[in-house]
Every structure is written in structure tokens, then in C-alpha cells.
Amino acid sequence: MTLRSILILWAGGLAVALSACAGQADSPVSVGIGINPQLEAPKTSLFPAVKLAEAKRWAPGQTPTPAAGLKVTAFATGLDHPRWLHVLPNGDVLVAETNAPERPESGQGIIGYFQTEAMKKAGAVTPTANRISLLRDADGDGVAETKTAFLTGLNSPFGMALAGGRLYIANTDAVVSVSYTEGATQGAGAPTQLTDLPAGPLNHHWTKALIASKDGKKLYATVGSNSNIAENGIEKEEGRAAIWEIDVASGEKRLFATGLRNPNGMDWEPTSGALWTAVNERDELGHNLVPDYMTSVKDGGFYGWPWSYFGQTVDTRVKPERPDMVAKAIAPDYALGAHTASLGLTFADGAKLGDQFASGAFIGQHGSWNRDPYSGYKVIFVPFSSGKPMGQPIDVLTGFIDEQKQIAFGRPVGVEIGKDGSLLVADDVGNAVWRVAAAGAKPPVEAATTK
Question: Strand pairing of 131-136 and 146-151?
Fold first, then answer.
């Protein structure tokens, strides 16, 4: 028997052991949702819970399940691990077909080997296409008839933003840009670098999201932590667990907000004008800790990671303690449930999905890997009033997972509002972009323009 075979058998046995050690959640995921989530006592064990849904992908004609009053269709299929979306002014849709870069220091040791094997099962370990593709619905029927490679040869691209006639792309290690002309199906020339971003050979959270200010003078880039709770050393976290503000004219940047373990989706709340982000919180404290969240982001704000969570709840695992940092920690605005992997965020500004979904935020929840039973694996809507979240979330798109068979047909990631008012959802395991519209709504009359 080869060493690899022995390791695979050992990893399989360890998976059973990990699940057995952690047991099942004794409270529903809903305890960690809302403005005032219940923060249970931490539950630690020698090994964390590991419960992964095996990626099988959708059968022909199979789709996720929309909420009552909505319908879902495939806007595009046959993509290569689509994770993030950007809708251009003419209605064209850019999709980042991407995955993690080479990370020689990631996944080290026997536990790291097991985690990598588990993520392969979940469909999370595939070669990165390193491509931004353009999807065009030329005849306005709600289906993209054409797909063209807009930019290739990138480095694990993720976030995209249009400002001042240039398209900016957040690679895993830098923000780059190309000139953009409305209707173009390919980027103009090789990308030029605006500024670098924290990366390196570990690069634990490799995705970097991007958004432009309303006046196009600033960009905001997310950079996730290099660990769960700084266990690799706080020096490895320099410039990470943060949102950076970048000056478009000069490329100079500064830390805008810190203590955000793994921020991803960002959007401008239409009533207040405030920047909001969705954040993945830490693991290994139990099935219901710590809730992921969405929050408004204050300039200069510190949100606790790694020393505390949900404001000033101390994580006693982190050494040395930093009571001075805990005292500064801001509690986030709204909890999204523990281990949901809430990645995508877009406000309903311009959405045409009915009154129920007129004011609030859509969240793409990629799904848990260490909660039993599963959490996430759906798109939800959080209602807002006067610029603040209120009440409980509404399921918008479910059916991504068959819990009985522990199969994931897909996993939602980025969410965007299309020019026609539909909701577009990137599904990286299902290799599709889904289009959610009001039931009974006719296909959009206005197609993507090509001027």
C-alpha cells in the first residue's frame, strides 16, 4: 500500500472521528441570526466538527428552488468555477472564473492534508481558470447566448469595479486595471497594476473583493485573515482581516477598517450611503459559534478579530490577550448564522422582485463545512428599514443541497442585481449563473447594448 493510500484511509477514519467528537448542534442555526444573536458558551474539543456535502452538480434541467412569487432560470451554464459577478452599465455581466492560487505554505501537516482532501470532496479544490468572462443576453430573453473571454492570464481574480472608464480587477495579490469601452467583449490590452495587496505563500483567505466609491475616486478592497485565530503568528496578519481604501489616481492606500476576519461582499446601502460588508467569522468554538455577519463599516473601525467577537466577547484561545483591542471592538449590525459562509452581498436597489424584496440586502451563503446539521447553502434576503436591518431573513433561493444524501448540487457565492431588475447568483460548484425574477414577469425587453 502506498503512503498516499495510507493517508487517505487515515484521513477517512479521522473524518469519522472528528464528526463523532463534535456531535450535533443542540440549537438551531437561527439562534445566531438577527440584531441580537444568542452567543452560546464556547464548545471546544480536540478536533472540530467536519461535515461536508459532496459536490455532485446539477442534473440537466435541475435548478435551485425559488421563494414563492419568484422563478429561477439558468442565465449561463458550463462555466469554470464562477465565483463573483459584476454587472456593466449596458447589461453585460462579467463573471470571475477563478479559484485559489498556488499556496506552498497552505495545507501543511497531516491535518492540512486531510482538510485539503475534504475540500476536494466539496468541490472547492479545482485548478483556477484565471479568467474574467463576459456574458451577454443579446436578445433580452433572460439567457446569455454568448460568452467571451474578457480577460485571461490573471492571478486568481475575484472582485471587479468600474471607475473612470477603467475596469479594475482584484487579483489575489494586486489590483490591476484595463481600459473599458461600453459594449466591448474583450479587455483593451494587458492589465496595469494600481497597487499590491497582501498575499504570499500562505494566503489563507485568498479572495479579494472590490467596490468603487460613488464618485469613482476611491476603491475598497477586502483582505481576509491568514488563519482562523492568528494561530500562524500575528506577524502573518499584517494588512489582513481588513478593508483597504485605495486612491484611484495615485494607487496609494490605507487601512479603512480592521478586525474583520474574512470580509467579502460589499455594497453601498442606498438610504444612508454607508458601506456594508459580509464577513465570515472564526471556527472551532462549536456548531453555533461564531455567527457570520453583515455590518456597516466605519472609517477607522475595529471589529474584534482575533481577540474578540461580536463586539467585546473575548476569545480566550488567542494569546497574548489584548484587552486594549477588545475595548475598541465594534459589534456588527446583523448576525447571519454560524458557519454559513456568507460571501455575497448586494442591496435591492434596482431590483424588480416584488414589494417583499424591495428594501434590504441579498446574501449568498456558500455553506458550512464544520456544522452538523448544515447551515447556509442558500441565498437569503435581510429586510431593511431606514437604512438598518430589521426582522428575520427570508429564504430566496434554496435547494442547493440534499441533506439526506449529503450532496451539494451547487454552492451560491456572488450576488448582483441585473440591469433588468433580476437577481443574478454565481454558483461555483454548479458552474452556473442563476437568474431569479418575479414569477409571471415577461423576459426583459431591453437587451444588452453594444454601443
Answer: antiparallel
